[in-house]
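DM from R.C. (forwarded with permission)

"hey, sorry to bug you on a friday — could you get me a structure for this? deadline for the figure draft is monday and I only need the backbone to look sensible"
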Amino acid sequence: MDSTRRSLAKAVSWRLVATCITAALAYLITGEAGFAAKLGLADTLLKIFIYVAHERIWNRIAFGRQKEPEYTI
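My reply, with the result:
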């Protein structure tokens, strides 16, 4: 299971990439850099917390996990 700190680090790194994509797309559609930057920031602030919650929920679900081998001495 990932630690909360690791989940947060993954969320931040992903949001940096996603923010650039959102801002670039908004700029291509509107041609307004200020609007694109605001949209990218708003998108990031909202989704980073949603992503961390999503990761934490999935850490509680056993679907697709393999059990670690038990070692005996």
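R.C.: lifesaver. Helices lie at 4-30, 33-59.
me: no worries. The mean pLDDT is 87.
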